[in-house]
Amino acid sequence: MTLPIREEFVLAEFDRRCKAGLIFYDDKPEIHTYTYGDFQFEFAITEAISKKPYLQDNEHEPVTKAKRPPGYAPGSDIDISGYEIGDVSRTHILAFNKYCMYRPHLLLLTKDGYKRQYDHLDLDDMQSAWNALEALNWNYFVFFNCGKDGGCSRLHKHLQLGPYLSDRLAPWPSTSRAPRNIPYEYVLRRFDRSLGPKQLIDIYRKMIGQAKEILGLEATEAHVPHNLMMGKSWMMVIPRRKAHVRGAYSNTLGLFGMVSVANHEELGRWVDQGPLKVVEQLGVPRQPAATD
């Protein structure tokens, strides 16, 4: 599928809407880096996320039921009015994130505002993510925060896209070797580009089955809290146990060492506890016998 969306257009629109004050983005975040063995952490202190909310529970409905402006789809708690980029499929729309960690930071939302973030991905989600990545020449990765314990901040089902940047930490599966001291259990699959969305959603469902076993959930349990990240030839699922450890919150990015915090106090919550220990507790501590 060829989409009328190009990276040059997306970047130009991002800059225009930043200048107009629609998008919160700090182009010069304060960066702190830490390395523990092979595992790298990059902390970006940015006020852009200081107003970002966190989901308190896996509710079926948004917390407020007050009448919402037209920018909200029925059932949604995300207003994309003024942030739209365009349709990527019959079921999903691409938009700019209001609270940006990157230039650009994108949302891929279901057009159905009643779809929920605690539900697993389906074929429409995977097809739409594939379409968006392909339109952007695979210069981006896509990630999904499934449910409250997966670190999501909104109820309306959505994925997010971020760019590979030469001056910022990239997700390690995009390289040829995994860090030797990954502290949490994960499921990683590398695949040939000949595979398409239909094959990938089948692979994802099997990975979710493995994540369910890692978490010790009953086979009948419908919700498996997890993080997903996918790039050009790889997909990774991380089972999640909690959204934060004593105030150190994280979505998918943080589990890869790519952490954005609003201020030095939030940074301290990570550093004081030990970043490796935080991500270990957010996920499932890795068993010594596990191998990559």
From TrEMBL:
Sequence ranges assigned to domain ATP adenylyltransferase C-terminal in this UniProt record: 181-285
Q: InterPro entries of this UniProt entry?
A: Ap4A_phos1/2, Ap4A_phos1/2-like, Ap4A_phos1/2_N, ATP_adenylylTrfase_C, HIT-like_sf
Q: Where is the Ap4A phosphorylase 1/2 N-terminal domain?
A: 37-164
GO process annotations (BP): nucleotide metabolic process
Which stretches are transmembrane?
none
Q: Provide a Gene Ontology MF annotation, just one.
A: ATP:ADP adenylyltransferase activity
Looking up Gene3D superfamilies in the UniProt record yields:
3.30.428.70
The domain of life for this entry's organism is: Eukaryota
Give a single Pfam family match: ATP_transf
Fetch the PANTHER family from UniProt.
Answer: AP-4-A PHOSPHORYLASE II, PUTATIVE (AFU_ORTHOLOGUE AFUA_5G14690)-RELATED
Q: What is this protein called?
A: ATP adenylyltransferase
Source organism (scientific name): Truncatella angustata
